[in-house]
Each structure stands twice: as C-alpha cells, then as structure tokens.
Please model this.
Amino acid sequence: MKLLAIESSCDETAAAVFDKNSLQSNIVASQDVHIAYGGVVPELASRAHIAKISAIVDKALVEAGTDITKIDAVAATAGPGLAGSLIVGLTFAKGLAMAHNLPFIGINHIEGHIFSAHIEYSEIAAPFLALVVSGGHSLLVLVKDVGDYKILGSTIDDAAGEAYDKVAKVIGLPYPGGPNIDKIAATGDPDFVKFPVATIKNEPYCFSFSGLKTAVLYKYRAMSDDAQEKHKKDIAASFQKAVIDAILPKVSKAMKEYKLDQLIMAGGVARNSALRTAVADKAREQGFTVYVPSGIFCTDNAAMIGQVALLRLQRGEKSGLDLSPSPNLTIN
Ligand code: KG4
Ligand code: ZN
Model:
C-alpha cells in the first residue's frame, strides 16, 4: 500500500509518501514570509500554501521514486489549525483522491504529533503516555489506542511553543523563537532570574505559560539596554528553566499515577535540547522508556499524518470527500 500524506495546518507545507509502513519521502517547506512579522500571519500562510503545495507534493512523489498513478490512498490534516491553511492541503488531497479514484482520509493534527514517534520506533505499543508540546498545543495524554485518548491536562492559556515565540520577540530574537532561545540558552545562566512556575488549582496536569511570558517581559523591560544585551542569554536560559520546571513535575506525576512504561514526547518544542534531556532523565529514573522523534518529525510534517492514516486505514476507516476543515478539532 502506497500512501501520500499532506500537512498544511499552520505555516509548513508538507508532503510524505509511505510504502507499506516504510517512509519513502518527507518534504517540509517552511514559509519565510512570516519572519518579518514575528509570527504567523494566517492570510499569508494560506497564500504560501497555495503557491507551494503542488510542487511539494510532486517532490515527495519523485523522491519516493513513484508518481500519483501508483498511489493507493491519500491523507491530509483535517484540523486543528488555521482554517485558510487547512483548506489548501485538504482540498488538494481530496482533489487528487477524486481524480484518481482513491480512498481519502482526514487526520487530526494532534494525533499526528502523538504518533510521530512511531515513524522511527515501531516497537511503541499502546497504552502509553504522550507529552505534546508545540506552537499551538501543550497537552499530556494517556493513549489507550489509536482514537482512544484520555487528556490528563492541557494548557489553560498559551502553548509552550507560543511562549517561546513570544519571549523571543520580547528579547529581540527572530521567529520562530524556540530554536533561537534554545541556542543562546545553552551558554546562559538558568539561575539568573527565578521566573514563576504556575500551578493550577485542582488541575494537576494543566499548564499555564502566559504569566511566565509576562514576567519575562517586565523583567526585560526593567533592564538597561546594556544589561539587556549582556544578559540576553541568561534571560533565555532562566525562561527555559521555568518552562522545564513547569512541565517536568507534571510528566513525573503522570508516570507515577499511570503505571505504564513508555513515554513519548512530541511537537515542535520537543526539539528543545534541554527539555529532551530533562524529560529523558526523569523518565528513565521512573522506569519508563522514552521515545522522542528526530527533530524533523517533532515540528510539523506530513510523515506523522501518514503514520496515523496508515493505522486508521488498516482498521478499514476512511473519510468522505465532503470532509471540511475543522480549525478547532480536538482528540476527544
Ligand atoms: O509542532 P510545531 O511545528 O507546530 C505546531 O503544531 O504548533 O511547533 C512549532 C513550535 C514553535 O513555537 C517553535 O518555536 C517551537 O515549536 N520550537 C522549539 C524548538 N524548535 C521549535 N521550541 C523550543 N526549542 C526548540 N529547539
Ligand atoms: Zn503541530
């Protein structure tokens, strides 16, 4: 079974091809147009998807050594995401499915992140715990099976990646802020400022990153120009420490409460080197095997959408060609 998968929920235009369960190509085109604005501009994102999608899909097919006539099924992200972005990939995929008389399946983007670890680690078997930390989502999930989830907690305000991007903007680093903060934090002093870590009453697994972002803003604004330059990396490192301090105890508590043995961490922020190390150490300490995908499978990509599509198609599922984008789609 050859599968073509398309992802266009935010600002990455992506396509991937699987042959049986083996990934043959994974093309991701980022949109530079947003850099000047310090964040994703939805209208520009959908226009850039329209401009790129056909070439990206072609590239994925060529790199996989195939063409559309040899594809057996088509998948695309149906939500959540930006409406104007989702509609481009979804409509393109449905068009291909209709023209070539192929089964089509719409996939939940968050599910894609959850199963992104399966691309490289086929041994992962449900039930397992999943920490998804991205630009749009932060959640801790008990995965009982494909499509059977218990959300233990999610963010009540900003997502972790959103906090990274906003803090980067405050301290004058370009978008996307996460990788840039990651880089300069490596040589900064994480104890330079003790930023607050939010806990939410009666919601032990929920996150909140909005107060942290504001605390960084006030602290940074109160510093002189010289101090800002001199201590930029220390502010970045202190912020990053607070993010890890906010995430780690919740993951640890979940590992204690749900006596499983596998933890996966996914989403763009899972590329963060300090977070990867901290979570991996904690998981091992608690007897868990931790699976973190390679960077390319953490940030948005179509391989993760294809991975879920394969699991669902194998169960006989498919979607109708009348499927519309669902910007607010959830996983339960
Ligand atoms: O999963 P993703 O590509 O998109 C969403 O589904 O939201 O995640 C993008 C987010 C951005 O906020 C970006 O700043 C963050 O992931 N990110 C990182 C790193 N690389 C990407 N955050 C922290 N450290 C990184 N190395
Ligand atoms: Zn994502």
In short: The domain at 2-114+299-313 is CATH 3.30.420.40 (Nucleotidyltransferase; domain 5). DSSP finds ten helices and ten strands in the chain. The beta strands are 2-7, 12-19, 22-30, 73-79, 104-108, 128-133, 138-145, 148-154, 262-266, 289-291.
